[in-house]
Design brief:
Layout (H helix, E strand, L loop, with lengths): L1 H30 L4 E8 L2 H8 L9 H4 L4 E7 L2 H14 E3 L5 E2 L14 E7 L1 H4 L12 E7 H16 L5 H41 L9 H10 L1 H12 L3 E2 L6 H10 L5 H11 L3 H11 L6 E2 L1 H13 L6 H5 L5 H13 L3
Parallel strand pairs: 2-6, 7-8
Antiparallel strand pairs: 1-2, 3-5, 4-5, 5-6
Helix pairs in contact: 1-2, 6-7, 7-8, 8-10, 10-13, 11-13, 12-15, 13-15
Length: about 350
């Protein structure tokens, strides 16, 4: 088994390559504005290598060069359209074999369901091979699989079920798996459609806000756009900083504001903006009083959080605030401090 000894000697090299590629692939996805669910990386273990080359029906003369997945990377994405986008980006950074790489789904007949990932067989290109940290990997092949979250779920579960299935019922078993695959494929398409619709809504809301038309229903998309562009919130933010409170790095915190708008039955951006404009002239007074009750160094929040503080201060005597405690959004002590600071300045 000289081939196994040869691979055992090279195994650490393939393992280090897998970890370098994992980091690089994330950078490539980030640069292409593609959200990753996860990246998996591994080198084939020596035991797995030995099993593969001795499997019945396999005849390798030089398995180290013939087996293309000794190093494997798997990128798991949220949306189907991102699969091709990431594949295009990968082709700009690596030499991709057009003969060995396979879109498994394209191999299926029209009357078949299928749900398998894109497999790209790659090598580092000449530009990367001259870099000191990459030159030791020149000539090594590796496989990059690109699939969606649903494709990954299908592949993982169906592999386990196939492995444990009863061969006597193989046809019925395969048909049932195929039906599930079709449902998942449809789900992937629907998720992509929803993403497109969300982008359309986002653009529409952004245009409305730019035109100062705030007669827009509040939802997760409109809140996010409002928080990212609201002038009155920026004015309130200046008062927050002056009182030594801090805006967190994730300054939008739209989910927080959305919960409060729902609980306080604020239904349009116009209503929300009016409440914030009512609060803004007294913001410095409020936060100075609030700082006496709550330590600024340990009280953090983004615009969503501090915007919620502002509207609660305005509506504390007009609206039922029990949802804040029932849903454990704030503690009872924190709510009382917000109300007390507002009472102190007769807001």
């Amino acid at each position: 088994m000289d081939h196994v000894k040869d691979y055992l000697a090279k195994y650490p090299l393939y393992e280090s390559l897998s970890q370098r590629l994992k980091i690089l692939l994330k950078d490539i996805a980030d640069a292409a504005n593609i959200d990753l669910h996860a990246i998996e990386a591994r080198a084939k273990t020596p035991d797995s290598f030995a099993s593969k080359i001795t499997r019945p029906g396999k005849d390798y003369s030089d398995p180290l060069s013939e087996i293309t997945d000794l190093c494997g990377i798997r990128a798991i994405l949220y949306y189907q359209e991102n699969v091709d986008q990431l594949a295009d980006a990968i082709k700009k950074h690596f030499n991709v074999s057009t003969t060995d790489s396979v879109d498994k789904k394209s191999e299926l007949n029209q009357d078949q369901f299928g749900y398998i990932s894109l497999h790209l067989i790659c090598e580092i290109n000449n530009a990367r091979a001259i870099l000191p940290e990459w030159e030791i990997y020149k000539g090594l092949k590796f496989e990059i699989q690109v699939r969606t979250v649903l494709q990954h779920a299908w592949a993982s579960i169906s592999h386990q079920l196939h492995y444990k299935s009863n061969a006597d019922d193989k046809d019925n078993f395969t048909r049932q798996l195929s039906r599930i695959a079709g449902l998942l494929e449809l789900s992937d398409e629907q998720f992509s459609e929803l993403k497109k619709k969300r982008a359309t809504i986002k653009t529409s809301v952004k245009q409305s806000i730019a035109k100062k038309d705030l007669d827009v229903s509040i939802n997760s998309v409109s809140i996010e756009q409002f928080l990212s562009s609201s002038k009155v919130l920026r004015d309130i933010g200046a008062a927050i900083r002056k009182a030594k409170f801090k805006l967190t790095e994730r300054q939008l915190d739209s989910a927080h504001m959305f919960l409060f708008c729902q609980g306080l039955q604020i239904t349009t951006l116009q209503e929300l903006n009016s409440l914030l404009e009512k609060f803004a002239p007294r913001a410095i007074e409020f936060f100075n009083e609030f700082a006496k009750l709550s330590d600024p160094t340990s009280t953090l929040g983004g615009y969503g959080h501090w915007g919620a503080v502002a509207i609660v201060s305005i509506l504390r005597n007009e609206k039922d605030l029990t949802f804040i405690l029932d849903e454990e959004i704030w503690s009872a002590d924190y709510l009382e401090k917000v109300k007390s600071a507002a009472d102190k300045i007769s807001l």
